[in-house]
Amino acid sequence: MELRQIRDFVTVARMGSFAAAARRLNVSQPGLGYQVKQLELELGAPLLVRHSRGVDLSDAGAIFLADAERILAMATEAKQKISRRVIAQRPQIRIGLSPTPQHLLGPALVGLRVSGEAMGVAFREGLSTNLINDVREGMLDVAICIVAVPVRDLRAISLYCEYLHLIAPPGVLPPGDVQFSDLANHRLTVGPRDHVPRQYLDREAARAGIRLNIAQELEPGNLRRALVLHGSESTVASCGMFIDDIEDQTLVAHRIVNPVVRMEVAMVCGPGLSPATEEALVEIARKTVEAHPGAVVEWAAAPTTA
């Protein structure tokens, strides 16, 4: 008696026909019928009564169905226990992600493999300065974040650079770039003052003598995105933060120019991070950036500190 045969019987019994069960299991109907027939031969009794409308359970089938479902549930539970144990025994890496790169890189990092071995990944969200301090204190193995000032005491690898963009729904703004001075004419939803992209924005506005029309200060998240999608406000951010909406064309990113505002995303490494892990992280970032060419300005992948 095989688990496959038990699964096939349960599916046919629940679906009420071989045709429907074959579609559900994505197998051929003759092959499905053969597996159920082999199970019936082994048990020594017909489990299903076949008729023109489909199948019904026989008396033996009704008795066996409850046991069959229990066997499948136990098999699933056993697999899950083993999977949890395997995952728990994987080498763990603690990765901090700031808001700007997390939307672009986070999903790709879940599948991290180092020297062919799967790694368990524990993420932490936070602001760049906090994440870098967590690396210093040994609470994180690596932080991927915007680096506004040189990190002197840790190894930092520049991954890529992004421009700030004015992001709005299609048709709200004329096509093309946006002059920095024109930002004063738009109601803006931006991040709080302790966010590095906001600091870049405020610094350039002060240099240009421009008073920004800031309607909302919100953390990156669903509310900020909802307000922008609604069209009530635009936002200033990197493309990576709204990459899915931009690629789906539900939002449009207009590069801010004169001046352009360029931000460096770097990987800040703790002292215990192995060269192989460092290389694997850089490779994932490179492949992700290549898959989203509109999200970044340039690929760097070079050490910024010794």
Describe this structure in words.
The chain is an alpha/beta fold and 306 residues long. The chain has three domains: 3-88, Winged helix-like DNA-binding domain superfamily/Winged helix DNA-binding domain (Arc Repressor Mutant, subunit A); 92-159 and 264-303, Periplasmic binding protein-like II (D-Maltodextrin-Binding Protein, domain 2); 161-262, 3-Layer(aba) Sandwich (D-Maltodextrin-Binding Protein, domain 2). It is 43% helix and 25% strand. It is built from ten helices and 15 strands. It has helices spanning 3-15, 18-25, 29-43, 59-89, 99-109, 128-136, 196-208, 222-230, 243-247, 275-291, and strands at residues 48-51, 54-57, 92-97, 113-114, 117-118, 120-125, 142-146, 155-168, 178-179, 188-190, 214-217, 234-238, 252-257, 262-269, 298-303. The strands form three sheets. Strands 3, 6, 7, 8, 9, 10, 11, 12, 13, 14 and 15 form an eleven-stranded mixed β-sheet that branches. Strands 1-2 form a two-stranded antiparallel ribbon. Strands 4-5 form a two-stranded antiparallel ribbon. The longest helix has 31 residues, at 59-89. The N and C termini lie far apart (63 Å).
Topology, pairings included?
Layout: H1 3-15, H2 18-25, H3 29-43, E1 48-51, E2 54-57, H4 59-89, E3 92-97, H5 99-109, E4 113-114, E5 117-118, E6 120-125, H6 128-136, E7 142-146, E8 155-168, E9 178-179, E10 188-190, H7 196-208, E11 214-217, H8 222-230, E12 234-238, H9 243-247, E13 252-257, E14 262-269, H10 275-291, E15 298-303
Parallel strand pairs: 3-6, 3-7, 9-13, 10-11, 10-12
Antiparallel strand pairs: 1-2, 4-5, 7-14, 8-12, 8-13, 8-14, 8-15
